[in-house]
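Researcher: Go.
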Amino acid sequence: MDKKKAMIFAVILAVVGVILIQLMVSGEKKKYTDESMLTNVLIAKKNIAAGTQIDQNMLEGKKMYKDYLPKDAIRVSSLTQIIGNAPKVDIKKGDAILTSSFKAGVAGGLSSSFLSSAILPGERAITVRVDQESSVAGLIRPGDYVDILGTFDKPGTAPVRTTITMLQAVPVLAIGSQIGIGATSKEREQKSYGSITLSVTLQEAELIEFSRRKAKLIFVLRNGEDQKTEEKVPEVDFSSIFGKAGLAAMQQRRDAMNKKRIEVLK
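Model: Structure:
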């Protein structure tokens, strides 16, 4: 190979090398800026000595990369699992709160005398009666988030039966008198309840109280990591059922969600 060909070959290799490096850097940058790679976990705002009952002021949320988190790190959405309980080991300021820092079963539930500590300032606890149908077959647990739906006769000269989504991403504080989810799956299976307690604003409490006296409310369980709310959720009535265009659009969204589900499970 003469010098000219060798030089051309070297230039090509250099260009390819630069492109590969750029692609690698771009991939890493995307990896660490992609919100899907982050999860919101509880960390200690200050040192917490072993045996100290935890209250909300000791904790804060922080988004951290899933790849670098211990598997038993407690998510912000599961705040009620540890309020009022005491760790068995010291927790340093800035450390993630771990299930393994508590006695077996403790991090599965909140001390009943500390329910008020799990209510954010400006919010209230309200209890609503539920049954198997309205509470996802009784599978809702403290620390979960729910959307609240109701079906009403919309006022007018000819009342129209309408279903609406009233509130989204409402945190569940308790089910029945149970504030913790129990230490084992067997204990959880034995739990049954006829009411759930929610953490809401005063205005939301008024809305729930008025609505539950007019219709049966349905509580729709959602992913604890997903508190994003949908804007302009359309009301549903008979026109939604018999309107083919609306059903077709709804099916397109369902297909897109199914595709996303498959991608997540891969």
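Model: Residues 122-235 form one domain.
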